[in-house]
Design brief:
This protein is of the alpha+beta class. Helices cover 32% and strands 28% of the residues.
Length: 149
């Protein structure tokens, strides 16, 4: 999850989505890619995104989250495994992501070496409840299947 604020960019699934609010983060703040990295690392008990890319390290300031995904994918391969599928869910009140879903799916598929039919991207709101409902933040859930070669 990331906090939202005016004057920041909203990057989701590698797509800069037009929005008056964007994520406040050390890197580019792509909450979907961050959740994807945690899912991939977690599939093989390889830690989490904060262990691999700490926000206390200035070299990650403004970094594209695609680099984090590439790192996780490389670790999966180094452990003689492969990614079977990926299922992403964004939780945010606005903007609507339908116009950007195919590009997000393609970005994930490309980074992870999958065909697009193995990648799902969905979105929901929190029905105006809580920090998401107040447009103070956004979060993403990602599950994936990783198998040994």
């Amino acid at each position: 999850m990331h906090r939202l604020a005016e004057g920041e960019s909203l990057v989701l699934g590698g797509v800069t989505v037009p929005s008056p609010l964007g994520t406040v983060a050390h890197s580019d703040g792509d909450v979907m890619f961050h959740a994807l990295v945690d899912a991939l690392l977690g599939a093989l008990a390889l830690g989490d995104i904060g262990e691999h890319f700490p926000d206390t390290d200035p070299k990650w300031k403004g970094a594209p989250s695609s680099a984090f995904v590439e790192h996780a994918v490389r670790l999966i391969a180094e452990h003689n495994c492969y990614i079977v599928n990926i299922d992403c869910t964004l939780v945010l009140e606005s903007p609507k992501i339908l116009p950007f879903k195919m590009e997000m799916r393609q970005n994930i598929a490309t980074l992870c070496g999958l065909s697009i039919d193995r990648v799902a991207v969905k979105a929901t709101t929190s029905e105006r409840i809580g920090y998401v409902g107040r447009k103070e933040g956004v979060h993403a859930y990602v599950i994936c299947e990783v198998q040994p070669r």
